[in-house]
Design brief:
There is one protein chain. The chain is mainly alpha-helical and 212 residues long. It has eleven helices and four strands. It has two domains: 135 residues, no CATH class; 67 residues, lambda repressor-like DNA-binding domains (434 Repressor (Amino-terminal Domain)), CATH 1.10.260.40. Helix content is 58%, strand content 7%. α3 runs antiparallel to α7. The longest helix has 20 residues.
Length: 212
């Protein structure tokens, strides 16, 4: 144990990164929550655990690709704390990089130094991994059931306002540009909604977004 890790406040660091993980943005496409970011994070943590990565410098290799595929296949359901060193073209934050693009333009990625220190401890590494899996990947084992309750309450409110206006789910779907299945899933609390989705629903229902 080096001097830096001996006086390192693991508990405070853990709490700090839980907040960063909670703020990790996951896009919802056709009612499906994308898991690419958390799956990639878990794959790297597994790489640290397996001694594939012995320093705070991550490159895309065959091991990481295979581990990522395994995690993505396992958890595909029915605030950023990693940094990138570019060796080529930069990617706009609104774009999703392909594997080919990453290999061509990214030299390596690395974590904040405090997160890297945290991950060197097997106990905290396991806790971080479990938190990412439970809150971002495994939707059947939510560590915070209140989030599901909130989605259900929101969905019921959407359904109530829609019915008060004499609007069917089909009509709401047509007005928002989403599928009937999407609207049905939102109303039963199955899916979280992004701000853009919320805004379209509010417009379609003739409500201000802050009133929803």
């Amino acid at each position: 144990m080096n001097l830096e890790s001996r006086f390192f406040d693991y508990k405070q660091c853990y709490k700090f990164f839980l907040e960063r993980i909670d703020s990790l943005r996951q896009y919802v496409i056709n009612g499906e929550t994308m898991i690419a970011k958390p799956a990639f994070l878990v794959a790297i943590i597994d790489g640290v655990d397996a001694n594939v990565y012995n320093n705070n410098r991550f490159i895309i290799n065959e091991w990481l690709e295979e581990r990522y595929k395994q995690i993505a296949n396992q958890y595909t359901k029915d605030s950023q704390f990693e940094n990138i060193i570019y060796s080529g073209e930069r990617l706009d934050k609104s774009q999703t990089p392909s594997k080919a693009w990453l290999k061509q333009n990214v030299e390596y990625a690395y974590f904040d130094e405090s997160l890297w220190i945290l991950l060197q401890n097997s106990y905290w590494r396991k806790k971080i991994r479990e938190y990412v899996v439970n809150t971002k990947l495994d939707y059947k084992k939510k560590t915070n059931p209140n989030r599901y309750d909130e989605r259900k309450r929101f969905g019921k409110m959407i359904a109530r306002i829609r019915e008060e206006k004499g609007m069917s789910q089909e009509e709401l779907a047509e007005k928002t540009g989403y599928t009937l299945r999407n609207i049905g899933s939102i109303e039963v609390g199955k899916y979280s909604v992004t701000f853009d989705v919320l805004s379209k629903i509010a417009d379609a229902l003739g409500k201000k977004i802050e009133l929803l």
